[in-house]
Specification:
Arc Repressor Mutant, subunit A; 2 domains; two-stranded antiparallel sheet; two-stranded antiparallel ribbon; 4 strands; elongated
């Protein structure tokens, strides 16, 4: 018995590079990025919906952002001053092996108390 293997090739009109990867024209990439920005979806959700690999799509979005705001960093920071609360000692708690619990605000005082309890 002879087994024959065939390959079905369907020309969809898509351009491919020499490695067989789909080549998306710049105009279509720009349309997809614009649609993504209006969609309210995450990049991963949008890429999945459109059948584009996420890393490729994320690169398109990043490149578009850089073109729209040259020299402007993608992330901006602002200095914020928080109101300072009056310094309150942090409550400390020590549990001894016999189940005794010692509480206080000063580590030095607690250490002295624990030493005294052990003797």
């Amino acid at each position: 018995m002879v087994t024959t293997t065939t390959e079905l090739i369907i020309d969809t009109g898509e351009k491919r590079d020499r490695l067989g990867r789909r080549v998306t024209p710049a105009k279509r990439r720009a349309e997809l990025v614009r649609e993504y920005q209006e969609s309210g979806l995450t990049q991963a959700e949008f890429a999945r919906r459109e059948g584009v690999k996420y890393p490729t799509f994320a690169h398109w979005v990043q490149r578009t952002r850089k073109k729209e705001a040259p020299g402007k960093p993608l992330v901006q920071f602002a200095q914020v001053r928080l109101p300072t609360a009056p310094a309150q000692p942090t409550p400390l708690e020590v549990r001894l092996p016999d189940g005794t619990i010692v509480r206080g605000n000063q580590a030095k005082d607690l250490a002295q108390l624990v030493r005294a309890l052990r003797s």
